[in-house]
Amino acid sequence: MTLLTTWPESGPGTVVRRTTDPAEIAAALAPIGVRYEQWPVLDHVAPDADSDTVFAAYREDIDKLTEEEAFKMVDVIALHPGDDPGFPEKAKAARAKFLQEHTHDDDDEVRFFVAGSGIFYLHAGGQVHAVLCEKGDLLGVPRGTTHWFDMGTSPSFTAIRFFHEEDGWIGNFTGDPIAGRFPDFDTIDAEYRA
Question: Rounded distance, CA 118 to CA 81, Å?
């Protein structure tokens, strides 16, 4: 289940909004241009399914969104703990990259969660909106929106990424340390599941 938590940009001392209601989440994010919707959950797709399996399972939804939004590239990104002894270092490096506040000049950041979870932090309109996305959630962050993403210290997720530009993910980092002032994925996830 998705969780939206909103605070003033000054810090997490006051919670402006906290909800798990999909309609409330969509309504709260719409004024800042963020697309939030839920696609049907396909339980027959394993959390660590390969790209071909994910594409085959979600082909109809992928094709529909690609046509609607004129996406040029679609791929699957996955990080799951496993037998790879190098996983902790790979996960740490990936997390560090996305945990910095950034924008995108030429593309929206659109992700559909096939499995697992992660949090998009959207810094807009004097507030920070933390959207804990899980299996079945699609989030579209419009180009120019200041944000960051936290997958936690032990990431486990599979997501479909949609791009208008064939260059893929290109971030413009703001240099603002704001991400360090707000609860991270591990803190929010632990509280949410308690």
Answer: 15
